[in-house]
């Protein structure tokens, strides 16, 4: 299923994109697309049955904002330097264990919302990423198979980053990762049953129409299952938590000088095979 949330920011309603590409209203069946729903197999079954019946009300998509596909977000756990080609372009050694950092839930915006260049920023960068959405409480998972059984679905994430704040201003990466609007998510949450192999997904990103990133999740240093299992050793993952699993080569940071960092007026488009496409225009904060 392709689950999404539509409407004005803070007042989105749950919806579903059916097999024919028709937008259908789920608000008569569930309150929201969130961790509570993803953990409830009975409720998900009702959604599936309603979708298959073709009787869900149709929504007019014209002019309707698409919000993040998850409400009441929990943790956003991020994995850094998780593609062989990205580590190479930045001159970093592939890490021996996953590099873990966090983004705050309030960085998340819709897939077509404006991204704000922070005040004082000269190194705002792009990163297309596969987002993994947790569907069952996960702690101390023992196997990759068990880890994948705890995944509810997948989505497109844009891990926007300010490299000066991240790397040159001391401390951890947090200052360069948690600026307002720095995690567009969506357009949909695609349930795990529709993604048979999360290690076979193409990822692409364009800036002002020019292709910058063209990678595949097969190049991940730590595959999705290993990432979920690993993270569960250090923290409990709850339904509705999100893991951003890293970005392939092609970011501005890895390019020759002068590096083409993002500025107000730039347009970024990104997509992951089977998971949808995003588009953001940048403006100054």
From TrEMBL:
Keyword flag Hydrolase: yes
Superkingdom assignment: Bacteria
The UniProt record lists the keyword Hydrolase: yes
UniProt keywords, alphabetically: Hydrolase, Metal-binding
Pfam family, one: FAA_hydrolase
GO biological process: small molecule metabolic process
Residue stretches making up the Fumarylacetoacetase-like C-terminal domain: 75-281
Gene Ontology MF term list: hydrolase activity; metal ion binding
Family classification: Belongs to the FAH family.
Name of the protein described by the UniProt record: Fumarylacetoacetate hydrolase family protein
Organism encoding this protein: Streptomyces himalayensis subsp. himalayensis
